[in-house]
């Protein structure tokens, strides 16, 4: 049975789609069967970042509504054999996804894949709650700035109340992915420090992804940064995050600092 | 003649008590409203769907100015459900009704200056010991409301979250949101927190906003009422 992971944030533009693609691709390159699912109906992006935009025939909504079979809609990546995409519809609106349809599709995906990674739309409305609904664990993507941190805190509250796991009285595992971390700006005190963010959100840290042009370059080429520029700093940070997601313990390095950072919060069980 | 015991269509009456925020406008009202705007800017929607009362016994205000103020509040989505300490000219069919000591009073009672509330009736019923323990962080957007008694949070209260308690509030973590203690009229209520970064603290009617925390910022604190004022001391 596959694990369903939601990549969520509250705030828009923090790097959810970039992270979904990078982590999905890295896990698949390691031999895992991975399906990345785009829940951002009407504003789909994941297909672009994976370079599959011209291969979308059927999408998530077609499958959820029974207009196509899942096997017809899944798009296999050209570079990594075990990576698949279930695209969102660009033309329909977000209410076109029915709750029952989503439940059925996620159930089918669980049977087929090791990892189902759901790229959530921004916000706290229906699209975001639908994306987190069936998750077993969550990656909360946050930028080191006050508004992003506060929105993430809000999302953590929803993960603890609006998901099936929460309704069953279980506690969802949550990981913090700090993205677009700019070492220079952090040193000048223009951004929140890693410690500040962890102190506020108090969920374990999965990784710190530096701000880097390589991310943009890879996206424009239609390739996740972990495939296209696998030795770049952001790619290495994403690869480390994947190893942590798989349960390995990997020392955390703050971009711009030499020695590994052992957060008092890392690995600690927290809400 | 036959008796039909159930015949009469009875009008049923029920009692209901609820908590209301009591605002105390000060002169000049324009400045007070500007302060309110600044507060609403930081906490939009704070008063949404929450009952609000006015306490105007200390305010000298003409009937027209009072009516204008009620309109100004309504435009800010503050619906005043009742007013305390109002003079007869502040009452009317289209103005909030008068209450005293939280219990409804008629206008005649107000006109008859000798009619004082019975101190015996004033005493609140003995509060049952009641407490709510939250074993998690209170996240942004969440509101914990427990008018029955004390609230203990074993965790932090985030910016944009609130804890409202009839009694005292204990926070074993950072308080970055709002804490309102003693909302059921317990003047002995207190607020404790391990790290003060609060947006707002209140006990009964006394309150302190973020700008007025000064050197207490980041400290472990204990807040209580000292007469009508809030007194905050550092715990260490
Ligand atoms: N580490 C990074 N360094 C530089 N740019 C980045 C980084 N991560 C993301 N970006 C850029 O930030 C922008 C937003 O990223 P992305 O689309 O992944 O965010 P999102 O959270 O999915 O947004 P939305 O909420 O709109 O779905 C993109 O232009 C992306 O290339
Ligand atoms: Mg996106």
CATH architecture classification name of the largest domain in chain B: 3 Solenoid
End-to-end Cα distance of chain A, whole Å, is 25 Å
Compressed to H and E, one letter per element, the order of chain B equals EHEHEEEHHEEEEEEEEEEE
What is the approximate shape of chain B? globular
Tally of domains of chain B: 2
Radius of gyration of chain B: 21 Å
* Strand portion of chain B: 25-35%
**Which percent range describes the beta-strand content of chain A?**
15-25%
Helix share bin of chain B: 10-25%
The main sheet of chain B comes to: 6 strands, mixed
**What is the number of strand segments of chain A?**
10
Low-confidence stretches of chain B: 1-9, 104-124
Number of helices of chain A: 13
The main β sheet of chain A shows up as:
8 strands, mixed
What does the average pLDDT of chain B come to? Answer: 79
Which molecules are bound besides the chains?
adenosine-5'-triphosphate, magnesium ion
From the alpha-carbon coordinates, what is the Rg of chain A to the nearest angstrom? 17 Å
Protein described:
The complex is a heterodimer of chains A (271) and B (236). By secondary structure, chain A is of the alpha/beta class. Helix content of chain A is 39%, strand content 17%. Chain A is built from 13 helices and ten strands. Chain A has an eight-stranded mixed beta sheet, with helices on both faces. A two-stranded antiparallel sheet of chain A has the order 9-10. Chain B is α/β, with parallel strands linked by helices and 236 residues long. A six-stranded mixed beta sheet of chain B has the order 6-8-10-12-15-16, with no helix packed on it. In chain B, strands 7-9-11-13-14 form a five-stranded mixed beta sheet, with no helix packed on it. In chain B, strands 1-2-3 form a three-stranded parallel beta sheet, with helices on one face. The radius of gyration of chain B is 21 Å and the shape is globular. The N and C termini of chain B lie far apart (80 Å). Chains A and B meet through helix 7 of A and loops of B. Magnesium ion binds next to helix 1 of chain A.
């Amino acid at each position: 049975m596959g694990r369903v992971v939601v990549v969520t944030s509250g705030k828009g533009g923090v790097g959810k789609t970039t992270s979904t693609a990078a982590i999905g691709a890295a896990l698949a390159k390691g031999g895992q069967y991975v399906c990345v699912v785009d829940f951002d109906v009407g504003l789909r992006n994941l297909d672009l970042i994976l370079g599959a935009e011209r291969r979308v025939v059927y999408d998530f909504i077609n499958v959820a509504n029974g207009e196509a079979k899942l096997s017809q809609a899944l798009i296999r990546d050209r570079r990594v054999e075990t990576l698949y995409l279930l695209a969102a519809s660009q033309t329909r609106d977000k209410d076109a996804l029915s709750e029952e349809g989503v439940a059925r599709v996620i159930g089918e995906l669980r049977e087929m894949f090791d990892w189902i990674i759901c790229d959530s739309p921004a916000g706290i409305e229906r699209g975001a709650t639908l994306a987190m609904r069936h998750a077993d664990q969550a990656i909360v993507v946050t930028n080191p700035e006050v508004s992003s941190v506060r929105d993430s805190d809000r999302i953590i509250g929803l993960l603890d109340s609006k998901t099936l796991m929460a309704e069953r009285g279980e506690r969802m595992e949550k990981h913090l992915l700090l993205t677009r971390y700019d070492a220079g700006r952090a040193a000048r005190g223009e951004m929140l420090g890693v410690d500040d963010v962890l102190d506020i959100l108090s969920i374990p840290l999965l990784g710190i992804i530096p701000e880097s042009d390589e991310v943009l370059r890879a996206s424009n080429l239609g390739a996740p940064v972990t495939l296209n520029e696998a030795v770049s700093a952001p790619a290495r940070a994403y690869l480390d995050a994947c190893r942590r997601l798989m349960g390995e313990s990997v020392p955390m390095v703050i971009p711009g600092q030499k020695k590994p950072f052992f957060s008092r919060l890392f690995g600690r069980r927290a809400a | 003649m036959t008796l039909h015991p159930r015949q009469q269509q009875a009008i049923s009456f029920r009692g209901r008590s609820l908590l209301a925020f009591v605002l105390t406008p000060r002169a000049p009202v324009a400045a007070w409203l500007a302060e309110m705007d600044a507060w609403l800017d930081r906490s939009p929607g704070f008063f949404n769907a929450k009952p609000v009362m006015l306490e105007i016994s200390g305010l000298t205000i003409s009937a027209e100015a009072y009516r204008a103020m009620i309109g100004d509040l309504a435009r800010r989505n503050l619906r005043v459900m009742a007013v305390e300490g109002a003079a007869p000219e502040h009452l009317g069919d289209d103005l909030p009704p008068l209450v005293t000591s939280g219990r409804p009073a008629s206008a005649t009672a107000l006109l008859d200056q000798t009619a004082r509330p019975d101190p015996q009736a004033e005493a609140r019923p003995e509060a049952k010991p009641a407490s709510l323990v939250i074993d998690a962080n209170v996240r942004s957007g969440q509101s914990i409301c427990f008018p029955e008694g004390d609230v203990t949070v074993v965790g932090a209260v985030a910016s944009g979250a609130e804890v409202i308690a009839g009694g005292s509030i204990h926070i074993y973590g950072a308080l970055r949101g709002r804490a309102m203690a003693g909302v059921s009229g317990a003047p002995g209520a207190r607020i404790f927190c391990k790290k003060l970064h609060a947006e707002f603290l209140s006990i009964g009617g006394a309150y302190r906003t973020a700008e007025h925390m000064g050197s207490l910022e980041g400290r472990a604190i204990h807040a209580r009422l000292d007469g009508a004022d809030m007194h905050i001391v550092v715990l260490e």
